Amino acid sequence: MNTHDNAPVFLKAIFDGYYTATSDGIIKSHDKNIIGKITTAGYRSVGYTTGGKRYMIGFHRLLWLILVGPIKHGLAINHKNGIKTDNRICNLEVVTYSENQKHALRNGLYQNVMGESHGMAKLTESQVLGIRSRYKAGETQANLSKIYNVHVSNIKKICKRLIWRHI
After folding, report:
1. Sequence-ordered list of residues with C-beta below 8 angstroms from that of 50, at least 6 positions apart, any chain
2. What is the model's pTM?
3. 141 part of a folded domain
4. Could you give the C-alpha distances from 124 to 40, 104, 129, 132, in angstroms and in order?
5. Does 165 fall in a domain?
6. What is the pLDDT of residues 97-123, one digit of tens each?
7. Which domain does 74 fall in, by range?
8. CB 83 within 8 A of CB 91
9. CA distance 96 to 105
10. Residue 74 and residue 52 share a domain
């Protein structure tokens, strides 16, 4: 679910008086503090149901919407100190997604998981090396696809080093 597209729903809820916030990062609904839930990515998020449909948004984005206003399409809210649950307004800033990624890399907040360590990996490093070796020896990509039980497009990308470039 792309929570960035839910801003219009939450803007209406803010306008209708459903949400209020303080600059120290507290969001309230009908004078009760909202705690929200911590996502698997480590961000606090909050849900809102209207018209029988459930919408989710990051706490930091909702706080910004309440206290500052709409966020232009293509921009992100960055946590300056890198603490994803520190939603004080003085810790938030609007940046491009590229700037947000660079900030995360600079501050060790983003770790580029590659190869076998990646949760979606279907091959081991030795299998990738085997694919390249067998392809170089003349085996077809279609046959390698059957042997390793992965789509031929992935075999092609492995052979051209478009993926698994680190080995």
Report:
1. 9, 12, 13
2. 0.65
3. yes
4. 25, 28, 9, 13
5. no
6. 999 999 998 988 876 778 888 778 899
7. 3-106
8. yes
9. 14
10. yes
